[in-house]
Specification:
There is one protein chain. This protein is α/β, with parallel strands linked by helices. It has a single domain, classed as Aminopeptidase (3-Layer(aba) Sandwich), CATH 3.40.630.10. Helix content is 38%, strand content 22%. Strands 1, 2, 3, 4, 7, 8, 9, 10 and 11 form a 9-stranded mixed β-sheet that branches. A two-stranded antiparallel ribbon has the order 5-6. α2 runs antiparallel to α4. Keywords: Signal. It holds the Pfam family Peptidase_M28. This is Peptidase family M28.
């Protein structure tokens, strides 16, 4: 009888503690980590043929993005998700940006653009350039943001931008920035993700703080993950490669819109057919996306 009473007492004491632990774990889950990895695997598979601008693989990728936006309750920025554009680079190209909108709860007319390009190198000499890190990783992180916003609406409106034709001279972001109907002063910042899924040193870099005092202060006081290192740099002042014009954030920077660019150092599979899902670092990648979301939260709560 005493054993039964002790067991009942233990259950009454421990059960709330178990529930609390489960609740805390659930609360800390920003997005479905397994789904994040599945997206990278799918988008970098042979079925998408390297996602070259203007190819069947790019069309398939675009449909994939739109389907995910619909499923995650993201609205189109305009009348539709698609923003077509044309440009000439040795030949005529037709690109299409995919633009989603999550309306802000406090500042709906002020916008944060979170971007990642979805195009890659396509097929060359019969070989598929899969583009897992570059940039299925950044694109899949957009879906993680959309999932996060379902339960955690942002204060400012957020444009989720999947840009096309980054590999052909940043053409998609160039068109968006030059043709947006949103005044530049209402575009508060661009958070751009390009190659964020692998690092032998567990290092994720963020560029864009050197010439913006508010961002520099925000990032200098940021300490989220013990599992990866978030380092400021690659701004042209530290002896490292200057990433200021390395990806789609460059077009925002040229118009005076602040940016934070998240990326890793180049690796041996950069722009090679071997940039496959099997070569990303899943634990690093998941932690990198969590870290970027935490940076967004700081930005969204700050006075830029």
């Amino acid at each position: 009888m005493r054993k039964i009473l002790l067991l009942i007492t233990f259950c009454f004491i421990s059960f709330p503690a178990i529930l609390l632990a489960q609740a805390e774990t659930k609360q800390c889950t920003l997005f479905d980590e397994i789904e994040l990895l599945k997206h990278v695997k799918s988008l970098s598979s042979q079925a998408f043929e390297g996602r070259r601008t203007g190819t069947k693989g790019a069309v398939k990728a675009r449909k994939y993005i739109i389907n995910q936006f619909h499923a995650l309750q993201v609205k189109p920025l305009g009348k539709s998700f698609e923003e077509p554009f044309f440009f000439v680079k040795k030949k005529n190209y037709e690109g299409v940006n995919v633009l989603g909108l999550v309306e802000g709860t406090k500042f709906p007319k002020k916008y944060i653009v979170i971007s990642a390009h979805y195009d890659h190198e396509g097929i060359k000499n019969g070989k598929i350039y899969h583009g897992a890190d570059d940039n299925a990783s950044g694109l899949s992180a957009l879906f993680a943001f959309a999932e996060y916003f379902k339960k955690n609406p942002p204060q400012h409106s957020v444009i989720l931008a999947a840009f096309d034709s980054e590999e052909l001279g940043l053409q998609g972001s160039k068109y968006f920035v030059k043709n947006t109907k949103i005044p530049y002063e209402d575009l508060l910042i661009n958070l751009n993700m390009d190659m964020i899924s692998r690092s032998d040193k567990n290092e994720l870099y963020v560029a864009g703080t050197s010439e913006n005092k508010k961002l520099k202060y925000l990032m200098s006081n940021f300490n989220y993950s013990c599992n990866i290192k978030l380092l400021t740099g690659h701004d042209g002042y530290d002896g490292l490669d200057n990433w200021t014009y390395a990806s789609d954030h460059a077009n925002f920077h040229k118009q005076g819109v602040p940016f934070l660019y998240f990326g890793v150092e180049d690796h041996k599979d950069y722009h090679e057919p071997s940039d496959t899902f099997e070569n990303i670092h899943p634990e690093f990648y998941v932690e990198a996306v969590k870290t970027i979301i935490e940076v967004f939260k700081k930005v969204d709560q700050s006075n830029l």
